[in-house]
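So, read this over?
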Amino acid sequence: GRDQLQMMKPQAILVNTARGGIVDEMALADAIEADRIGGAAIDVFEQEPSPAEHRLMQLASQHHVIVTPHIAWASQGAMQALCDQVIDAIEAYQQGAPINTVT
């Protein structure tokens, strides 16, 4: 929120790869435009896909802002880890010892 952004150091860079809505996007845009924080890297938005006219999308070409289309998880390492987890779960199930179950 706005209050939390005001507590950040001027050279801080906010990174959100978690969930849209965690960060007050308009307050973040205000903080960046006013140079109250150093920049931002945003992979998730409250509304996805984010419209091209979104203030943070516009700031990406003018300030220290990086915007990605909700793909930060899709690195080669992350996708390999996901595949490994699926394979482990299938093998464990086949052996009669399921893992990662919800009870």
